[in-house]
Amino acid sequence: MYIILCLYIWPSAPTVAPSGLGGGGGDHNELIVTWTTMAREYQNGDGFGYILAFRKKDSQSWMEMRIPHVESSRYVYYNDSLTPYSPFEVKIKAFNRRGEGPFSQMAGVYSAEEEPTVGPSNINATALTAFEIQVSWEPVQQLSANGILRGYEIRYWRQHEREAAADRVRTAGLEATARVSGLRPSTRYHVAVLAYNSAGTGPPSPRTTVTTRKPPPNRRPGNVSWKANGSAVTVRWDHVKAMHNESAVLGYKVLYKHEGQTSLKVLDKAKTSMSLPLPKDNGYVVLEIRSWGEGGDGPAHEIIVSRDSGTGMMVQNDASSTLSSQPLHLFTGLLLFTLVSLVGL
């Protein structure tokens, strides 16, 4: 004889509160509250929904909103008189046909922010090179931001362009200085700075102007020669002369690369040679030689040197194209062979 027991659970009011209570953001005059949708096993019956209670911080009375949707996880409260970025206290509970569950713990939520009402002041823009400027400003005070100040937006446009067509770049934090790159050489730019938060940007600062520098010479150092002498190599090159529409050469940069390691040597314009160490093994080094000046760095001339490289030279013509790239001892041997052949004739 078998006895079968059937267990039936009567519906009851929810016994747990929703979790994940939070919110914030939104448009003007909005308070947005969010929470995690409750799983079915915690709903305890049909007719399920949520009761959301909220009040301004330090207020005594609560407002309650009944939200009769199982899948709801967000509520937007709108009020024309809602001040920007006001702190609220919120709590939530679940209900079904059998009754209401317990309230959750209170959470703090802010109403939507408003764009900053003031702009940065004392804007200064300085040309660093032909392609880059540095912009600095007096920062906006947090109390003027009607919310959390996220950073600054720099707008820049060429002299004969409209401000509406300005390019824009945003800082990632509250630093009061930033660099803007990718500009055109010898070009006059207007620059303005705006503060921004999650609601948008505030009014622009007074604009300033800056002119980028002349471009660097577009020629590589010519007639690069080198002489490897066991543990070191001596490299020489011709001076790069700037044209009238190019920035003056202030010196040279030699980048030394070996097995993933790099080191940079910066020389003044009076020096067109230098000695560098060679690796003790049979490895090689890569050298990049370029001019530098107010307009930035010029194109590089690259050579590869090892202990057994001997003497070599890279000859350049006026158009900066390589005419030869042979070690000098090979070139000398080839010349002797040609002379012997001519004598034989």
TrEMBL record:
- Coiled coil start-end: none
Chain positions covered by the region annotation Disordered: 198-222
Q: Where is the signal peptide?
A: 1-15
Q: Which PANTHER family match?
A: CONTACTIN-2, PROTEIN SIDEKICK
Q: Which Pfam families match?
A: fn3
Q: Which organism is it from?
A: Liparis tanakae
Give TM segment ranges.
Answer: none
Question: What lineage is on file?
Answer: Eukaryota, Metazoa, Chordata, Craniata, Vertebrata
Q: Which PROSITE patterns match?
A: FN3
List GO molecular-function terms, semicolon-separated.
cell-cell adhesion mediator activity
Tell me the domain of life.
Eukaryota
Q: Which residues form the Fibronectin type-III domain?
A: 17-114, 119-215
* Name of the molecule in the record: Contactin-2
Q: What InterPro entries does the entry give? A: FN3_dom, FN3_sf, Ig-like_fold
Question: Which cellular component, as a GO term, is one annotated location?
Answer: plasma membrane
Protein's UniProt keywords contain Repeat: yes
What would be the name of the gene that encodes this protein? CNTN2_5
Q: Which keywords annotate this record? A: Disulfide bond, Repeat, Signal
Which processes are annotated in GO (biological process)?
axon guidance; brain development
